[in-house]
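Case study B.
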Amino acid sequence: MSALEEEYRLDYFEEEGFERKECPSCGAHFWTRDHDRETCGEPPCAEYEFVGDPGFDEPHSLEEMREAYLSFFEDHGHERIDPYPVAAERWREDMMLTIASIADFQPLVTSGETPPPANPLTISQPCIRMQDIDNVGKTGRHTMAFEMMAHHAFNAREDVEGEYAYEGEVYWKDRTVELCDELLESMGADITEVTYIEDPWVGGGNAGPAIEVIYKGLELATLVFMCMERDPEGEYELKDGNRYSFMDTYVVDTGYGLERWTWMSQGTPTVYEAVYPEMIAFLRENAGIDHTEEEVDLVNRAARLSGNLDIDDVDDVEAARGEIAAELGIDVAELRELVEPLEAIYAIADHCRTLAYMFGDGIVPSNVETGYLARMVLRRTKRLCDTVGVDAPLDELVDMQAERLGYENRDTIRDVVRSEVEKYRETLERGGRRVEAIAEEYAERGEPIPTEELLELYDSHGIQPDMVAEIAGEVGAEVDRPDDFYSLVAARHDTPEEAEAVEGSGDDRFDDLPETETLYYDDQQRTQFEAVVLDVFEREEGYDVVLDQTMFYPEGGGQPADHGTLSTDDATVEVRDVQREDGVVLHRTDGDLGKGEFVKGQIDVTRRRRLMRHHTATHIVIHAAREVLGEHIRQAGAQKGIDSSRIDVRHYDRISRAEVKEIEGVANEIVMDNTSVSQEWPHRNEAEAEHGFDLYQGGIPPGTNIRLIHVAEDVQACGGTHVARTGDVGAIKIRSTERVQDGVERLTFAAGDAAISATQEVEDALYEAAEILDVSPQEVPETADRFFEEWKARGKEIDDLREQLAAARAGGGGGGEEVAVGEATAVIQRIDADMDELQATANAVAEDGTIAVIGSARDGAQFVVAAPEGTGVDAGEVVSELAARVGGGGGGPPDFAQGGGPDGEALEEALADAPDVLRRVLNA
RNA sequence: GGGCCCAUAGCUCAGUGGUAGAGUGCCUCCUUUGCAAGGAGGAUGCCCUGGGUUCGAAUCCCAGUGGGUCCA
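Model:
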């Protein structure tokens, strides 16, 4: 059947007397030493045989098993490699979290562009997979965080030499299976019980044969032989429907689940008890879960049964629970009551480990990317704790795992957790109030809370429908929750498909040109050079000049391009922009110097110096920020400039004014220390081994060798130009901080003369303010405060006086014309005052049942009409008639209306007509 | 990176273009008293900032700032 069937006919299987069989139950092909065996041995074709009956000689703890594995492979010629961070986004852009050990070596090593850190190598790589999050705790075997133990060998075909970063074959399929057998045997496994199931692997554009290793019902390892790549012309069509062909490189990619091996060695009911027994014990005690012997027995039997059920999503779990309950002869509800608290506790332990990995590796909770995943996991964990009654603070629980995992930044981890839990608490509180108000409203009307409202609550306020239902229940409101709730949420986010921005590269004009030799790293202080014009291309505006070598820095790494001039003996052209395409540097000029000309290049020194100061300052500021705010500080983006630069850093809180000052202090100390700024070009593996992934603050550069910039103790991979000594930066001034998104703070700063200008700007503003207030700058805050207070007090006083004035006017008949309108009296009066005063006067007049028509010629013409109840006059209508006469409009409630228009001259006439208008309105 | 929501009294929030509100807290007085409480009166506001539309904007539009939230 399998297109790769031939690939599994290993000499090793032959020599060891394996037989290839087809599982009668699931149809899978597998290899076994046991000629009597029938099924493949993997659930659902088998059950967990090791629960209560460990499959290895000795019980191992997680740490012991990891060490046993790594040293086994060390003894068999592999070099042990330190694990990579779980935040895969730090060295690759196509993946947020590390989901497998091979992720560490993609894409550069697997493609053969970069040599592996060792070959062959062995590693135990912490991984996080969010896909199974709902199953964690329930199935007994799913975990979100796990360590994938692995050995990898990177091979290249013998017939291709020099093209790839590694050569020849280390070992391939036979040896890989043999090593697996030997490892199992060394653990005391009965290898006649092991089955090797054929299961071709496809993923991420690569593919190859793969083997699942099953022992006593548990999949212990997957051996992947990555050797094909997607190729429309390829001769093999694999299970994803695409065609593949063989590559020149072929990679042994194994994955041994540390947790499962540990579990196998202990035979506990679930993997969780084997992996973090102390934490499970702590949580059980904390939640007050105490089972009788009989109950313990039931739980264990249920656990064992869960093995032979194919559980892939939550619906299945619920169905499976029914089957298990039937098998055990108890009620489903009873079973659920028994195991659900345990499931919650297992999940809490696992989630806390996930959080410890995430925060330990510097992920900061946020509304974007990995930060968002971390936030979701944390909130979920907090909910689980609340449901099951675990009252230990979450930061303590995460810390238990962080300690076990050996993280050194545990204080920061706890800070992050505490701050995030607090944010969640606030969200819940806000949400709770909101839901209560809405629920009461609908309860009163006797309607269910509509789906639209639920969507809004979830999408904009983060309130789960469950929570709405719960609160609504308390006030007696129903909730209209459709089954496809989450797809409705998704529909809300559907935006019209954006036209794919086609990268209009397709520019092959430069294909024949050699890569431009770049001089700007050789001596970063030089600003003049000589070169030959290789070619000139006309552009819409100006020209692209290509030279054989250049000192002009092309835009890149957040550093803008150099400006300057190119000149021959007779002509000079301005360079206004410099770009780089496929290694060819294009100088955008305003003139054509002619192909083959010999030119002198001169860089705009002032501009370049400023850029260099800002670039070095960027390194200094991020280093200082890390010192002040914590080890988790990482660059999330940067842009250098002439007058100021900015860096975005990941941080879980706003940066306070005090912290800004401290960062500024540390940064300027580094400047004053005047240490040298140096560059080097080490092999990337050496650089990574020595400095870790913190090197890549500004992105991951390609190539085998990378350029490192040392500024004081700070080391970063960087392609920019830098000053020679930190003192050359002059001074660093942080101008502002800004929260660019949740978990990302932007620091804007200026260096050198720009720092001085920035300071002067702020000073100018302060001095100007001081001058206006006629006080010294130091007294500005106090004076401003006093003025503001006085200003407010005067506003109140004016209001008071206005009312008094209005009362006096109304009482004293102050010049208003009195007319009779039906039963009532109306006062028509002109006072050229502002709206507030007109209103106050009208109010005062209306106080004793008199109709008031007040007009003003300030700002055109304005009217206020008050018509107390019982006068039979609609103030709104009166105003709109009057306002029409001054070219405007107006309106308001029947007892009090305002209006006006631009024609102030017509005011008198309008007021003169007012009695008529009043009477007409009365009669209407 | 994208979407959505929010910003009004110390706090929590109403307020659909026409005189800025409620609850709570605060102050004063009264009643009662072991505490809690009850009654009456009072003070609170650049309605986030800046533009625009309008006779008129807390309200509508645009931009900014600050916060929240969902998704990849």
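Residues 93 and 700 of chain A are 9 Å apart (CA to CA). The remaining cases will be described in the next quarterly update.
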